[in-house]
Amino acid sequence: MGRRTMTKAQPAGGRRRLLLAAWVVILLTTAAALAQGADPASHLHRIRLPEGFAIQIYARVPGARSLAYAPDLALLFVGSRRDTVHVVMDRDGDGVGETVLPLAQGLRVPNGIAYGDGFLYVAENHRIVRFDLKDWTPGRLLEPEVVYDRLPRYDYHGWRYLALGPDGRLYVALGVPCNICTTEDPVGAIARLNRDGTGFEVYARGIRNSVGMDWHPATGELFFTDNGADMLGDDIPADELNHAPRPGLHFGFPYYAGGRTRSPQFPGPVPVARVSHPVVEFGAHTASLGIHFYRGAMFPAEYRHDAFVAQHGSWNRTEPIGYRVKRVRFNERGQPVGKEVFAEGWLLPDGTAWGRPVDVEELPDGSLLVSDDYAGLIYRITYAPGPGSSATNP
């Protein structure tokens, strides 16, 4: 399971050297910018939002990635690509998570998390585990209970994304261990399984690296992000938002590198009966990750059931792009009809960045949380109409 075949056009050593060099450049230039600005939170005033919206620091969490809120426990859980899952508590209900504690440590890339019925589910690189929170007390580290231990183990795109579907099953994305290559199930796919670890099956194929899933609140149908390939130029291929209303669909990779751009390594006929192309194309290399459909009542009515997508930002582009949150507008039939920038300002005018959005989650009051693994911050975005505003809430 998980064995892959690298194409001759993608020698592993050369690819890794290119990726490493690019990341070194990003880290050095961004570190220099942060050194001049000290605390990343000092840049918060740079974030631009639509009129009536405001942003503040909710919590400081090292390497904050995936977010999962437990409304019955009033706890926010935060995954990472390190070895720790954190829990954030807003004890006094003032909209600031003043207490941040490790919930579990010693894990292998616990990026993906999902909460349901008193359990926190965590997708590590090689397995899915869960933590029983029914009797948890703050400050006590929990030991994992293994749910499924047969995920293929590799490092490249080896951080998993996990979500709990409306059918009560866990969905896990398994990115490909390459830039462009062929793979075997369940790699390059989204799989699902029961919460007790049984019934593992591939739900969707032809996916390069999805790090965001959510279900439309009205239709209950799955939408997921996918990152296009690197090294093909500044403006191709597109990052994607895909629609998977039923199992068994194929989304084109590796024959398509992203969007409708064909992979140069696979120029011949596509050996797939039908390819499901993206319903929304984002800019190339924006690194579109977490997605969340807005369900609350704090924002104006026109935001209800629209999607927010965190764009982590480019590394493989002459002029950086991304480092923002996009809004995808949906109609009453659950179809995307447009996209626009919702929050931006993490990218500085000189091309360096002080933060990189990863995931989006919603609090019970309808405010939005956005995680930032580079700055180690979680932001809270709120809305309050100004005097004379015509904005209405549902």
**Structure annotation, total helices:** 1
Rg computed from alpha carbons, rounded to a whole number of angstroms: 20 Å
Written as H for each helix and E for each strand, in order along the chain, the element string is HEEEEEEEEEEEEEEEEEEEEEEEEEEE
Spans where pLDDT lies below 50 across 5 or more residues: 1-15, 17-37, 389-394
Strand content: 25-35%
The CA-CA distance between the termini, in Å, is 48 Å
Helix content: under 10%
Q: How confident overall, as mean pLDDT?
A: 91
Strand order of the largest sheet: 10-11-12-13-17
Structural class: mainly beta
Indicate the overall shape.
globular
Overall description:
There is one protein chain. The strands form seven sheets. The chain has a five-stranded mixed sheet with strand order 10-11-12-13-17, with no helix packed on it. A four-stranded antiparallel sheet has the order 1-27-26-25, with no helix packed on it. The protein is globular and about 60 Å long. The protein has 394 residues and is mainly beta. The relative contact order is 0.15. Helix content is 7%, strand content 34%. A hairpin with a 4-residue loop joins strand 2 and strand 3.
